[in-house]
Amino acid sequence: MSGFGLDNLPYGVVAPPGRPPCCVVRLGDGAVDLDALHRAGRLGPRLPPGVFAGATLNPFLALGAPLWREVRARLQDLAPEPDVALDGAAVRLPVEVGDYVDFYSSLEHATNLGRLFRPDAADPLPPNWRRLPIGYHGRAGTVVVSGTPIARPSGQRPSFGPTEQLDIELELGFLTGGPPRARIPAEEAADHVFGFVLVNDWSARDIQRFEYQPLGPFLGKSFATSMSPWVVPLDALTRVPAPPQDPEPPEYLRVAGDWALDVALEVELNGEVISRGNARGLYWTFPQQLAHATVNGATARPGDLFASGTISGAERGSEGSLIELGRPFLRDGDTVVLRAERFGEVRGTIRPPGGAAPPTSGGR
Using one digit for the tens of pLDDT, what is the confidence trace for 248-282? Predict the structure, then answer.
């Protein structure tokens, strides 16, 4: 899966050999140095000086949707030649992640996991699942870029030790921008969403199962979350109608229009594609996720990451986690690659517990 043409133009941060990290936009097999383009006066007079001079996209995210769209339109008009080679370059986290929220937005995934975790329940869904986008706050400091090795975590399961049920979760995430704001209405959410990334929310199922009641995920989730290096602008993605919602959500979660994203996804384990699905079937859409996360007064800031939760479909072979696919859990040395057209990939290899600290950059 590829798709890095002028109709996409995802943003990222890379460190070419012998050079400090720079903000870029990807085009084909290369990238364009945004700071150089801006210093040459080619991105417009309204863009503040030095907005791309650092090693993070956060200053650009803070400018808001009108300037994001203006810069994107100028890049499409300019069609600049790539001036940064990606071969040998180290990709970096494109943003400094301030807060991280993970949702539970797939009806199929929630149903599958409910049957596995609560086999005696009359309804596999929690009683509030169709009323609101369930989620939890994660550890922003453990979000790592694609290619970073993942050390097997330890916890109580109920005996203490390394997890024996290390799993993946295939997700899409979005990054917020614009001025910090609380209580974002669902109908205004798109103006606060800069773009999307692929996310692997690594999960220790045995630790998760023992600890998650009554307060939800903790050590079983907080050890690592991998993120793809390329941030795909919302305007580059195809929106389609979302699945019907019953009952009708509360007023603050209602939004008109098509807000599901038509993104084909796949999971590869040790070179074998084991799952193919699509994000278009998510029950709770990203405007509803952002509206719910901020309705109580919580503030969304530039660079906050909101993930969808595992994306699973109704068809066999479209599940987004090993536990749903009925496959063995991950062994040390296994490599997982999540892919989506326009996004590229997010990759991680499992290391034994207590391994070296994760690096600050990963593979392409």
Answer: 999 999 999 999 999 999 999 999 999 999 999 99
Average of per-residue pLDDT across 234-245: 97
pTM over the 0.85 mark:
yes
Going by C-alpha positions, the residue among 299, 298, 323, 326 that lies closest to residue 310 is 323
* C-alpha to C-alpha distance for 148 and 158, rounded to whole angstroms: 28
Closest to 153 (Cα-Cα) out of 203, 110, 217, 109: 203
For domain 100-362, the CATH class is alpha beta
* Cβ count within 10 A of residue 52: 26
Residue of 159, 167, 144, 143 lying closest to 350 (CA atoms) = 167
Catalytic-role residue among 38, 109, 192, 292: 109
CATH superfamily for domain 11-92:
Fumarylacetoacetase, N-terminal domain (2.30.30.230)
Sequence ranges of the domains in the chain: 11-92, 100-362
| 292 is known as an active-site residue | no
